């Protein structure tokens, strides 16, 4: 009897912790969403500004050019080594906008990850267990988004700069560490799906 009370007490503590984290996830999700929308609106405004308000600074690192694009002496966009070539300094506004909006794309992917986390904790509150098919799907989507984020960070900027003739083909085409993390999360989603099936079988037996 005493053991049952301790288990119930422990379960209530964990449930309260999950509810608290779920509320924090909701706040973080909406706060980040406001940030992304604001950044996108700022980007649209920046794109309407005169070209002479932009500049590009490049430095030769020995294994490729690295640098940043500048707007109004304060807002900068950094470019990894090997992404840009010398032609970028001739079109500073285009260079800046490419870097800026690729950054927005990355923020959108992160926002999608936060949505999945919010969904997971909402499902835990609704089903009173982390083992549900909805959470398995949310974890799977999270893994896919992490992989997409790794590709966005590694490839999209290089592809766009190469298309506009302001970039080279140097550097890694993707962030392979993030791709591995995404694959691990997808694997965990299948483990959760197996756990969900076992729990359902146990509930039906009882």
From TrEMBL:
Q: Which InterPro entries match?
A: DUF2975
Check the record and name the Pfam families matching this protein.
DUF2975
- Domain of life according to the entry: Bacteria
Regions crossing the membrane: 27-46, 94-117, 138-156, 176-192
Q: Which UniProt keywords apply?
A: Membrane, Transmembrane, Transmembrane helix
Q: What is this protein called?
A: DUF2975 domain-containing protein
Source organism (scientific name): Candidatus Limivivens merdigallinarum
